[in-house]
Design brief:
The complex is a heterodimer of chains A (198) and B (178). Chain A is 63% helix and 5% strand. With 198 residues, chain A is mainly α. Chain A has one domain. In chain A, α6 packs antiparallel against α9. The longest helix of chain A has 27 residues. The two termini of chain A are 39 Å apart. Helices cover 73% and strands 1% of the residues of chain B. Chain B has nine helices and one strand, in the order αααααααααβ. Classes of the chains: A mainly alpha (198), B mainly alpha (178). Chains A and B meet through β1, β2, α1 and α2 of A and α1, α2, α3, α4 and α5 of B.
């Protein structure tokens, strides 16, 4: 191919026809009229089926979450509530999503972020849910007390922002602002990394 | 019913995601991890599929999402290496994905207008895994050098048909034309 008339994002020239042919070839792998995919192992077929089951569970949780909206609970409690209403077995779903549960703590953060994103939670909502857990682990007053702080005349109790402010205040009082910033930075980075998951 | 649809989706597309990622050089373990992630992620997005956009091919829509997953993987794992040209082309946004699907349609139509021999040589060389000229020549009953020349000419014909096509022009818009 000789006519390299366009420049690419890497700053060099490239042949658009060559690139288009490669894309056409790759697309054919997905078409029923294209080449048959390579034979897969039984283990991989099982993983695909588990991934589909996970997708179904997440879709059900997402519907329930959209009905219920934000509820100021620790993430583990919130997910259990959603799962109970949606009749989804949460522990196997979390395991299939690469999330480990240790006590009330969920991790690792990248898998948790991806899962929250799939459920349709904003990064702020996820942060508040996780922040409640962090606050309790660090000995801050439990969630009901955080909520009570919102019960001032004129306070807005139904927004994530109000809960976030109360949470930040509580963590500042026990000197745990740094831990919360670390959690926030890690969560935001993981959300950004999983941007195609929602 | 819902379970069946999800299972069917996984059994059709799971192996195709895997084949695609393997063909792009991912190690087996990573190709399979990414493929199973795609089964979950894409199945969850099926509600967003709009048949009125991007030529209306469901497989093309799924392919676009798999391609994005590959681009993300590449950026995470091969950050030091530049993306291959066909992955940065076109820039990856929803709007550009539509123009990508249209361009693929244009390519398909132009390819169908080539002679049977030209289709055979371009198909084997560019659409079927870089078959060596010697093997193509053997099949067509010609010399390898003649196969190379025929390939070059077929691409020139394809380019001449496609370059003025508005669907290709739309795809190239936004890229810097030298």
């Amino acid at each position: 191919m000789t006519e390299k008339s366009h420049s690419n994002a890497n700053g060099g020239s490239f042949d658009w026809l060559e690139a288009a042919l490669r894309i056409r070839h790759d697309l054919s792998l997905f078409e029923s009229s294209g080449p048959e995919p390579a034979e897969v192992s039984a283990a991989f077929a099982e993983r695909c089926e588990a991934a589909a089951t996970a997708a179904l569970g997440i879709a059900r949780l997402r519907r329930e979450r959209s009905r219920l909206g934000f509820v100021p609970l620790r993430l583990s409690e919130y997910l259990e509530e959603l799962a109970r209403s949606a009749k989804v077995e949460i522990h196997s779903l979390l395991a299939a999503s690469g999330i480990h549960v240790e006590g009330d703590e969920l991790g690792p953060i990248p898998a948790v972020a991806r899962f929250c994103r799939q459920l349709g939670l904003s990064v702020r909502e996820a942060l508040v849910h996780l922040g409640f857990g962090l606050a309790e682990r660090l000995g801050a007053p439990p969630v009901p007390v955080v909520l009570a702080r919102q019960d001032r005349p004129g306070s807005v109790r139904d927004t994530v922002g109000a809960y976030e402010a109360a949470l930040r205040g509580t963590l500042a009082e026990i000197g745990a602002t740094g831990e919360f910033y670390t959690l926030e930075a890690r969560l935001r980075a993981a959300y950004e990394e999983s941007k195609h998951a929602d | 019913m819902e379970e069946d649809a999800y299972r069917e989706f996984a059994s059709y597309f799971g192996p195709r995601f895997r084949t695609f990622f393997l063909s792009r050089g991912l190690p087996v373990g990573e190709a399979e991890d990414l493929a199973t992630n795609c089964v979950t992620d894409v199945a969850l997005k099926v509600g967003k599929y709009d048949p009125s956009r991007g030529g209306g091919h469901f497989e093309a829509w799924v392919f676009t999402l798999a391609r994005r997953a590959l681009i993300d993987w590449w950026r995470r794992r091969q950050a030091a290496e530049p993306l291959p040209d066909d992955l940065v082309f076109p820039e990856d946004t929803d709007e550009r994905s539509d123009s990508l699907a249209e361009a693929v349609d244009a390519l398909r139509e132009a390819f169908a207008k080539l002679s049977a021999d030209d289709q055979a040589v371009v198909g084997s060389r560019d659409l079927g895994g870089m078959e060596p000229y010697g093997r193509i020549a053997e099949r067509l009953g010609i010399q390898p050098e003649a196969a190379r020349v025929r390939h070059h000419r077929a691409l020139r014909r394809l380019r001449a048909m496609l370059e003025p096509d508005p669907r290709i022009q739309r795809l190239l818009q936004g890229g810097s034309v030298a």
